[in-house]
Design a protein that fits this description.
CATH class: Alpha Beta
Largest sheet: 8 strands, mixed
Strand content: 15-25%
Helix content: 25-40%
CATH superfamily: Metal-dependent hydrolases
Number of strands: 8
Number of domains: 1
CATH architecture: Alpha-Beta Barrel
Shape: globular
Radius of gyration: 16 Å
Oligomer: single chain
Number of helices: 8
C-alpha cells in the first residue's frame, strides 16, 4: 500500500465545470487524512473558468484549513507548441503551484512532434511545477523526450487518476502508463499522483494510479505523494 498524503491537482466551482467549494474540498481532504491539498483552477482560456483577476487575488485565502495545508495555484492551459500559457508571466511567481496541461478546447491535438514541443517548451518556464495528464493518448508525444526534459528542468510528471476512470474521455491505458513509468525509472524521474478532482468526494482519489504503480513495481522514492519533504523542492510555495 502506497502512503499517500497529498493531492495537488483539484478544482472547485471557480473552474466552471466543477461542483464543490474550497471549504468542501479542504474538509474532505482533512477527513481523508491528507496533509497537503492543491486547488488548481483552470486558467482563463478554458471556457467558463475564472479570469486573471481571480488568480491575482488568491493571496487573501488562508493556507491552512481543517489541519490541511492548502495551496492555491493554477492549471495553466498550454496554448501552442511554443509553450505559451494563459496567465501573464509576471503573475506566475504568485501561484503556490503551477500545473501545465494540454486541453482540447484551448490547444487541439497536433502531430507527435508539435505536441512534444509544447511540453518541452512549457517545462522551460521556471514557475511550471507539474505537467498535468501527459498520459492523454489523444496527444501523441515522444515519451522519452518528455521524461528527459522533466528531469532536466526539475518538473514533476503527473499520473492522473481521472484519466484512468472508466468514464474518462482521455481513455488513458495501463500499457501507456507502464511505458511511461519504465522511462521514469530509467531516468530516476519523480512522478506525482493527482486526482484531478472536480467534486469533493474525489479529493485524494488515486486508486487507479496506485494499482498501476504497484503493477510496475515503481520505486517509492520516486513517488512524491508519500512525503512532504520530497515534494517541497518542486513547488513554488516553498521556494520563494
Amino acid at each position: 500500500m502506497i502512503r499517500d498524503i497529498m493531492d495537488l491537482h483539484t478544482h472547485t466551482i471557480a473552474s466552471g465545470h466543477a461542483y464543490s467549494t474550497i471549504i468542501e474540498m479542504a474538509q474532505t481532504a482533512s477527513e481523508k487524512g491528507l496533509e497537503l491539498l492543491g486547488i488548481t483552477e483552470h486558467g482563463p482560456a478554458m471556457k467558463g473558468s475564472c479570469q486573471t483577476i481571480y488568480f491575482q487575488n488568491v493571496k487573501v485565502i488562508p493556507r491552512e484549513r481543517f489541519g490541511v495545508t492548502t495551496l492555491f495555484g493554477v492549471e495553466l492551459n498550454i496554448m501552442d507548441e511554443d509553450g505559451r500559457v494563459d496567465l501573464p508571466e509576471e503573475l506566475l511567481p504568485a501561484m503556490d503551484v503551477c500545473v501545465a496541461s494540454l486541453h482540447i478546447p484551448c490547444c487541439p491535438p497536433k502531430s507527435l512532434e508539435e505536441n512534444t514541443r509544447a511540453y518541452l517548451n512549457v517545462m522551460k518556464n521556471p514557475y511550471v511545477n507539474i505537467i498535468g495528464h501527459p498520459d492523454d493518448p489523444r496527444y501523441p508525444i515522444d515519451l522519452r523526450a518528455v521524461v528527459e526534459a522533466a528531469k532536466e528542468h526539475h518538473v514533476l510528471l503527473e499520473m492522473n487518476n481521472s484519466s484512468l476512470a472508466p468514464t474518462s474521455f482521455r481513455k488513458a491505458t495501463t500499457e501507456g502508463y507502464l511505458e511511461f513509468l519504465d522511462l521514469c525509472k530509467e531516468y530516476d524521474q519523480p512522478i506525482l499522483m493527482g486526482s484531478d478532482a472536480h467534486v469533493d468526494i474525489d479529493v485524494g482519489n488515486h486508486g487507479y494510479v496506485a494499482e498501476i504503480l504497484e503493477l510496475a513495481q515503481f520505486p517509492e522514492h520516486l513517488i512524491m505523494n508519500t512525503d512532504m519533504e520530497k515534494v517541497k523542492p518542486y513547488l513554488n510555495y516553498y521556494n520563494r
